[in-house]
Amino acid sequence: MRVSGIIHQQICQLKWHLLACLGLIMVLPIEEAVVNLKAGDGFFSTNMTFPAIMFGPLLAGLIACANVQGDLNEKRYIFWRSKPANVKLLISLKFFIGLISSLIILACPVVFAFLSNIIWNKEGIDRMFFRFYVPLPILVAIMTYSLCFASNVLVRKTARAWLIGMLMGCLLLVLPFMLPLDYKDFVSDVIFLPFGFYLAIILVASAAAFVFALYAAQHDWHLRTNLKGLLWVVAGLVFVLMMLFSSQIANIKVLHEKEIEPSRGRFRLDNAGDSIVFQGQSYIDIDKNNISLRNISDNPDDRITYMPRMKDYSVQIYPRSGRLYKKAGNDVYSLVIYAYYRREGKARVYEKVYLRSYGFSGKSWIPVCELDISDCLTNRVNFISVAMRIAMRLIGNKVVTCVNDSYIVVDATNPGELKRIETKLDVLKKGRPFFHNRQKEFAIPLVPLEEIGLEERIKLSIDLKYQYRSFKSAIHESSVVDVYDDKIAFFLVTHEDIARFDVTHWDKEKVYCKFSAARPFTILEVMTTSHYSDGTFVKNGKLYSFLNDALMVFDIRSNRRIRRLGHFVRMNYEIEDMAVLEDGKILLCVRRVQDPRKSSPNKRKWYLYLLENPQ
Amino acid sequence: MTESAITIEGLHFSYGRKQVLKGVDLEVPKGSIFGFLGRNGTGKTTTIKTLLGLQKPLAGRCIIGGLDSFTQTLEVRRRVGFMAEDQQMYGWMSVSRIIKWVAGFYPDWDDKFADELIEILRLPKNTKVKALSKGQNSSLALLLALGHRPDIVILDDPTLGLDPIARKDFLRHVIDLLQSNGVTVFFSSHLLYEIEPVADHIAILDKGVIIKASKTEQLRESVRKFVLTPISETNFSQLPGILDVLKVGDNVSVTIEDCNEAKRTQLKGMSANSMTEIALNLDEIFEAYVIGNRGHELSV
Q1: Which residues of chain B are within 8 Å of residue A13 when distances are taken between CB atoms?
Q2: Do A48 and A133 fall into the same domain?
Q3: One domain, residues A228 and A306
Q4: Is residue A101 in a domain?
Q5: Which residues of B touch A5 (CB under 8 A)?
Q6: What share of chain A is helix, strand, coil (3-state, %, to 5)?
Q7: What is the pLDDT of residues B96-141, one digit of tens each?
């Protein structure tokens, strides 16, 4: 058998299909490059390369079908089979010629991106892209090619074979989620691992498909398919796949659900030592996964009503919603900062700042101590009408208050007698603005307090930099910093990913940090939630991130990868607040978002959810 | 005893539950042009596919040129030239390209002979296969079957779809090219009139079994039709070798095989007056064998 003739014949047979596939896969990168060129940036492509090569497995399947379909038409099959052809050699040659061609085509957008970025893009190319995103579609393409090739040898109908091959590929890719292998997170378990099980599946499936194709061609195995039956199978498999995918985004178990009475404003869950205070009125008791509320006061209408007013002044409160609670013996105290200001045009002029503590009298909350911390106002005027930075954190028995760039440490061992123990005015150096290139090492100003430990100072510094929001700040109750095994790291959530930054070292003035890992969101996660930049905190080695109707929990203990443990979604519900209990269970306060078109007697409903903490 | 080019013994084959071949036995003498007859769907192509080792029989064996077609498949295909019915080739290849491609499979491909065949068959070398007429397509398929100078050529309904002129033209080429070289030709067809002038041996396949195999001339001599006026209470089904009985007005036409004087005398005894003996062509003989009623539907 003349091998060169067969190779030539095969290339001629495939050439138009290959050119068509090349055209398809290069459309997006070239379009992006043209747009960049028009914008004056240069003829390069970056963002569109990944979507383009994501089409690779589909195109590889098409090439596989085109590769062998021409030889498997019943009459043509008899024509070449009646010649003294070594079927296995012939099919092998066809298989590998098609496979190599597919890989070359798949490589084109990558090579184009690489070369065009080297030549025309001053910022260079993202190496992460080549490291993580390129190998997976290529490996998957090898598998889909092999599966489509084998199914076409068997079925001998291009469209059906392609459909079957793709379905088998999908099934094999979700197989690890079906098997008890503890693969929960597609991104971190698959892409960011050295592939492991997936690599094995892809290679074994490809090799098995190839061997099967050889035998099927040799023995003239021909499966006559019924299109209707095939469509039913497709529908069934799609259903299974959808179930598997939905289990990826709704896999945190709800242990109990309790409807609660409506209230004005957002519901709040606050930590008060070993218990959770709901809305400043009730303790939340959990008994055998059942939620029950126990009023702090006999009169459920009792609130913190004492808020001394100053004539002609407005007041800025911290915490804006919720409270900072401190237990002293059996007594519970609440701590609040009040900042009084008047308006002069668009500017806010601050006059007084107080730290007040409230004690529970048995019937209502009453002020028990007031500390004037107005000396923190080294700069009294905020020219633009935004709130002044005020924050507070309870560290042991000490309360650290932050007003603009000044700090006061207060001894709150007895919250009824607050004592100032350290004052640092206007000390915090300005940090650099939010980084553009996170790959570079950067520094954060270190809070210069002596009364609290270094680790807590570092945590506070990082949280003040990245956790502080003027409209919603949770410095008093949560942190994005994790300390594990003497290593300090913090986590930032963007629209695209969760990034881990390690604290590498520090000096008297600054904490130095470096990016170490990122876990991008999957399309499914992006689709089910808008973004995760609010409501993010770290507790006991887990990152909790919630917004609107979704909560995600990540394992952050490894400095190499961030792994998703669970995802909770309730459509048409909004998570208002959450707390992690001492035993690890998660408590959510959610509001059902009503449909404005419907007129329902129960227009608004609130619930408390008790969730299992995913492991 | 004549040496066999092809021997088929007890061949059984089925597609799923449908049994297509139910014990085919056949001897094809070396150097003969062997007509393999049968209606559509009786298993001719299945027999040929099995003969070429393209499918595995349930039972039985096929020997071609002394080689077992299932265990020595590649050797068999090297020695045999095969042309399938309505053969489809790679339409995007040119005539010269497909000849070159097929030549790659045969170590003893005769390029000079192939060039001669191109001339004889008047094939346009640079034309794409898909642009060829049906006649040219058949000629090309014939060329590809003969280019390696095989000892045995198997033609499976090669003129299917050709118009009468093209068919005659094609058959003339087959005779010219093959008969003179002593090549054994195994020729399957359901068109009797195209087999009759060329075949020196005939086998009729019906319902998965060979119902008749003989020399063509011998068959013509042995199968006869008699037209007679039967006496009353005549049961033709008892007549040995009866193939078909047909009532034509007051008369009856009786077709019998292995016709001899004894059978003639027996028929005369059934006739009220004189009877007429008619020689049959292959078409009529085939019809008598395949759809003849064996005298069961008519008794006088």
Answers
A1: 90, 92
A2: yes
A3: no
A4: yes
A5: 100-101, 104
A6: 35, 30, 35
A7: 999 999 998 998 899 998 998 888 888 999 999 999 988 888 889 9
Model pLDDT, residue A594: 67
Q: How far is B57 from chain A (nearest CA, A)?
A: 12
Asked if residue A114 belongs to a domain, the reply is: yes
Q: How many domains does chain A have?
A: 2
Mean of per-residue pLDDT scores for chain B: 86
Give yes or no for a contact between A277 and A337, defined as CB atoms under 8 angstroms apart. Answer: no
**Inter-chain contacts counted by CB atoms under 8 A, chains A and B:** 57
B128 touching A, CB under 8 A? no
Residue contact A82–B52, C-beta within 8 A: yes
Whether the pLDDT of residue A185 is over 80: the answer is no
User: Do A78 and A176 have their domain in common?
Assistant: yes
Which residues neighbour B174 within 8 Å (Cβ) at sequence distance 6 or greater? B142, B155, B158, B185, B187, B198
Q: What is the pLDDT of residues B204-245, one digit of tens each?
A: 998 899 988 999 888 888 888 888 888 776 777 778 888 888
- Nearest-10 crossing angle of helices B134-146, B164-178: 20
Residue A596: its pLDDT value, please?
58
Q: Is the pLDDT of residue A63 over 60?
A: yes
CA atoms within 13 A on the CB side of A359: 15
Supply the range of the domain harboring residue A113.
3-242
Domains and CATH numbers, chain B: 4-216 (3.40.50.300), 223-291 (3.30.70)
* Whole-number pLDDT of residue B203: 92
Residue A434 has pLDDT above 70, yes or no: no
Mean pLDDT of chain A: 82
**What count of other Cβ atoms lies within 10 Å of the Cβ of residue B24?**
25
Residue of A nearest to B48 (CA): A82
Q: Are B174 and B142 in contact (CB under 8 A)?
A: yes
Of B210, B221, B197, the closest CA to residue B289 belongs to B210
Shared domain check, A345 and A212:
no
pLDDT in tens, B165-174: 877 877 877 7
Q: Contact at 8 Å (CB) between B280 and B215?
A: no
A355 and A319 Cβ atoms separated by less than 8 Å:
no
Max distance between CA atoms of chain B, in angstroms, equals 71
- Are B102 and A83 a contacting pair at CB < 8 A? yes
B298 touches chain A (CB under 8 A): no
- Considering only CB atoms, A2 lies closest to which of B77, B86, B104, namely B104
Tokens found for residue A357: 């503590």
| Chain A residues 59-78 with a CB less than 8 Å from chain B | 70, 73, 75-76, 78
Q: Is residue A436 included in any domain, yes or no?
A: no
Q: What angle do CA A416, A417, A421 make, to 5 degrees?
A: 140
Domain contains A469: no
Do A223 and A368 lie in a common domain?
no
- Residues in A closer than 8 angstroms to B52, CB to CB, are 82
Write down the pLDDT at residue A194: 47
CA distance B80 to chain A (A): 9
CB contact under 8 A, B90 and A76: yes
pLDDT digits (tens, 9 = 90+) for A482-495: 888 888 999 888 77
Residue type, B296: H
Q: Which of B82, B86, B96, B105 to substitute to test the interface with A, most A CBs within 10 Å?
A: B105
ipTM of the complex: 0.84
Distance CA A407, CA A391 (A): 10
Nearest to B105 among A70, A83, A220 (CB): A83
Residues A229 and A109 reside in one and the same domain: yes
pLDDT band at A148 (very low <50, low <70, confident <90, very high): very high
Q: In this structure, are A58 and A122 located in the same domain?
A: yes
pLDDT tens track for A453-476: 899 999 988 888 887 766 667 788
> Is residue A110 predicted with pLDDT exceeding 80?
yes
Asked if A235 and A301 sit in the same domain, the reply is no
- Chain A: give the shortest CA distance to residue B148, in Å: 11
Choosing from A242, A258, A288, the residue where a domain stops is A242
Interchain proximity B54–A6, CB inside 8 Å: no
* Residue of chain B whose Cα is closest to the Cα of A221: B55
> Token digits for A364?
């209502």
The residue from A427, A451, A471 where one domain ends is: A427
